[in-house]
Task: inverse folding
């Protein structure tokens, strides 16, 4: 079977190479696609074809994808967590040094110098005191969010000699294993802010995290603190940051999200969304997204979905696989099994996983599965999608 993948952005060739041309047609011109591969294109108002079985983002955030709508259609949305972690970590470290040593205003000062070299030398000696910075060892670095990026940032800050405190009540076992045992745990957001000289933000944008960094929490930071935001702009209340900078409470704000309110602030460095802008990160994200699509389309397996549970079942030999997405309510597997039995099909293997309000089921049956049986499964109340893989 040949699958059609609609690409909504220029996707790294390294990622597209994971989709063999003899089995995949991946381009921006395909019609009735089986899946969509996207980077930053805004899909929120897009008329997504009913043929689409999955969407994969070659990146981490999925704010440009209508996840809730696709979930109700039984369409998994995949992303690439950790694929750009090193790129973001390196930029966070660079921003830490920029803020600690006042590098950007110092560069601007040096560029503004006029006169002969003797005059410049004299101006440098007079002016350099205004750019006195601080060294990192002994300072406390707070990490808000300990996912793929946050863990790498925390470990790197520790290697710089800083005291590192992290806060993430939802940290996974996998990330906890990756985190250095020397990193301290904050028991609350307020506890994190109150002990930190520097705060680095690494949480996704949601209704709960919008303006998570606000006036009251900024006031808890030590005077002369530094705030780093390479997650999403709305997680930080911009006006609260400007007020803290004007009051001299914050020393600097470094972020990846320029706007009119920030671009002329003297103690702000706003970069043009460079967090994942490396060739390596773009390659890694595209590879991870393409691999997830291929595994789903060819085997029905779900890995790294943001809306459905991970579900990976080795294929039983000489069987036919059915993949079903459904709402997470009692007796779904029982109803499905009843229909298979009525069709004279034995279940060779079965996997059912749930995540919040949605569930996903993989079934390997002895014998072929008819279109009529798939239609009957789709008629079960609560079944969102069903297909033979």
Result:
């Amino acid at each position: 079977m040949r699958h059609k993948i609609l690409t909504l952005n220029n996707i790294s060739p390294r990622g597209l190479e994971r989709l063999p041309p003899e089995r995949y047609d991946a381009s921006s011109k395909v019609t009735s696609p089986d899946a969509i591969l996207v980077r930053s294109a805004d899909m929120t108002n897009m008329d997504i074809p009913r043929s689409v079985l999955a969407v994969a983002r070659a990146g981490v955030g999925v704010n440009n994808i209508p996840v809730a709508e696709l979930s109700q259609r039984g369409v998994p949305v995949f992303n690439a967590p950790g694929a750009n972690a090193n790129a973001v970590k390196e930029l966070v470290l660079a921003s830490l040094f920029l803020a600690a040593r006042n590098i950007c205003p110092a560069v601007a000062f040096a560029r503004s110098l006029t006169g002969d070299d003797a005059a410049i030398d004299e101006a440098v000696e007079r002016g350099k005191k205004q750019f006195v910075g601080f060294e990192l060892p002994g300072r406390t670095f707070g990490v808000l969010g300990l996912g793929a990026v946050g863990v790498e940032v925390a470990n790197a800050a520790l290697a710089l000699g800083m005291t590192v405190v992290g806060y993430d009540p939802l940290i996974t076992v996998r990330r906890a294993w990756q985190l250095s045992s020397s990193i301290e745990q904050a028991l609350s957001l307020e506890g994190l802010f109150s002990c930190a000289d520097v705060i680095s933000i690494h949480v996704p944008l949601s209704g709960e995290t919008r303006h998570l960094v606000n006036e009251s929490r900024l006031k808890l930071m030590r005077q002369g603190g530094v705030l780093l935001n390479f997650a999403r702009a709305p997680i930080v209340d911009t006006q609260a940051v400007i007020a803290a900078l004007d009051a001299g409470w914050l020393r600097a704000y470094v972020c990846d999200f320029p706007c009119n309110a920030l671009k002329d602030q003297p103690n702000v460095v706003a970069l043009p969304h460079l967090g994942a802008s490396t060739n390596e990160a773009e390659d890694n994200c595209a590879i991870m997204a393409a691999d997830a699509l291929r595994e789903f389309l060819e085997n029905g397996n779900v890995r790294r979905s943001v809306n459905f549970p991970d579900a990976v079942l080795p294929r039983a030999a000489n069987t036919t696989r059915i993949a079903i997405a459904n709402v997470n309510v009692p007796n779904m597997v029982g109803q499905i099994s009843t229909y298979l039995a009525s069709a004279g099909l034995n279940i060779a293997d079965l996997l059912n996983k749930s995540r919040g309000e949605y569930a996903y089921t993989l079934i390997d049956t002895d014998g072929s599965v008819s279109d009529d049986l798939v239609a009957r499964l789709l008629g079960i109340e609560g079944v969102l999608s069903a297909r033979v893989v």
